[in-house]
UniProtKB/TrEMBL annotation:
Keywords assigned by UniProt, alphabetized: Phosphoprotein
Name listed for the protein in its UniProt record: Response regulator
Keyword Nucleotidyltransferase assigned: no
Domain Response regulatory: residue ranges: 26-145
Amino acid sequence: MTDVITLGVDNKNNTHQEFIDISKKRVLIIEDIGEMRLMLKSLMTSLGYSNIDVEPSGQSAIKRILEKHYDVVLSDYNLGGSIDGQQILEASRKNHSQDHSTIFIMITADTAYESVVSVLEYQPDSYLVKPFPPAAFFRRFERVQKQKKIFESINSARKEHDFEKMEAQAKAIMAQHPNLASQCLKIIGESLYARGRYKDAKSHYMLTIQKNKNLAWAHFGIALCELKLGTIVAAVKKLEHTINLSRHFLSAYDLLADAQESLDNLEAAQVAMISVLEVSPRSFERALRLAQISMTLEDWTTAENGYSRLIRLTRDTSHEHVEYYYDYLKCLTHMMSIGSDNVKLADKFKRSLIRLRNFGKANPSAISNSFRIEIQQYLARDHLGEAIKSWKQWNRLIKSGQASPLSNAQEHTLKKRLGLL
């Protein structure tokens, strides 16, 4: 039997009916407050949905949303952990785990969200500010469904990489629904760019800006085209303008860092990463990039801050890696070697070293690398006795098979530095 839902019942019992097959529709509810989870599930159940997954944290939701397709995602904005609803939306759109047919509704108690949602790079299909009555939810949900229906042919063409059809359909929708012009113009630009028509795409975005000079996505589109056309300096200026228009346009910072790196301007790329982390402080990918750029610049203080943030954000997740600890410990070692606050840094070093050894205890290479960096740190601080103790402990673990062995040449060099030859 086909499952259907009926939408749009008002208080006067005037009913607008629309039957939608939902027998295979998947729903994901992401909410850290138990009562709100139950309410949202009840609302979706009342509409006829039964295939409903519920996640209380952003981290578990990210994993689930990247593994399977959902037709509807209802996410709280502030989830109380290291990942918020906006990051979930960004991850799902960036990785294409959820295509444009997915309904994504943001739910928030933060009224400030209303002032920024229109300039966000990754915008939800709609949002609701808590508290809200069921009737408001149903009206908003029906409105989004209708809009998704209008763009259904474009989403199908996008999946098939039929970009010419996308452009044609966008123009037809724009003629019929002038209120959707901005979305349609964005789709036309996307279509031209995807076909490699960078000059045409640039012209399209420039014409769009003539009508509305504050469309951040159009300025970003021009920057993308400038990069493809090899005019990197012009792209940098456009990206900086995009960020001035919308400090929440996160990809503009990433692309700006790319452009600056291609110009061998690592300091400017570093500034771009510092700036984006002020807007999106819980992005571990950007924390990693900042740390790596800073290490190349030998800016050990900024690199240490970057790796500290990265380790904090990835701890006990699938993104935690022993390499992050190695590089973090290297930064601390460099900082101690140039006379920074050695007591505080040594404490950070010790705590991170313990975590590395616990995390990598089943990995003999990780154990050996942990001792290698520990000895380097002791030698950098002229603590020869401690370095020798560390080597003796390491050697015992090598003999027991818990740490990977050194080559004869490596062992000879190490013993020479320790004065054991």
